[in-house]
Amino acid sequence: MNYRFHIAIFLSAPATALLAQPESQPSRTQIAIATGSIQDAPLTTTIHSAIPTVIPQTGAIFPPVGSIPHNFSPRGLQELWNIVGSVEDPPFTTTPVPKTPVVLPSNPPALYPEWFAPRPSKIFPDLKLPKGFKFGVATASYQVEGAAKSDGKGPSMWDWASRQPGAVSDGSNADVVDLHYFMYKEDVARIAALGVNAHSFSLSWARIFPFGVAGSPLNEVALKHYSDVIDYHLASGVEPVVTLFHWDTPLALVAYYGGFTSPKIVNDFVHYATAVFRAFNGRVKTWYTFNEPNVYCGQIASYPFDIAFSPGINKTTAPYHCAYNLLKAHAAAVKVFRSMRINGEIAFKNDNFVGMPWRANSTADKEAVERHAAFGIGIFSDPVYTTGDWPEVLKEILPPSILPRFTKKEQEDILGSADFFAIDAYRTQWVSSPPEACINDVSHPLWPACNQVVFFDSEAGWAAGPSPDPLSSWLQATPNFLRDSLKELQRRWPTKKMYIAEFGFVEPSENERQELFQITEDVARTNYFMTYLGEVLLAIHEDKLPIAGTFAWAMLDNAEWNSGLSARFGIQYVNYSSPILERVYKRSAMQMSEFFRAHLV
Ligand SMILES: *[C@@H]1O[C@H](CO)[C@@H](O)[C@H](O)[C@H]1NC(C)=O
Ligand SMILES: *[C@@H]1O[C@H](CO)[C@@H](O)[C@H](O)[C@H]1NC(C)=O
Ligand SMILES: *[C@@H]1O[C@H](CO)[C@@H](O)[C@H](O)[C@H]1NC(C)=O
Question: What's this protein's family per the entry (predicted)?
Answer without folding.
Answer: Belongs to the glycosyl hydrolase 1 family.
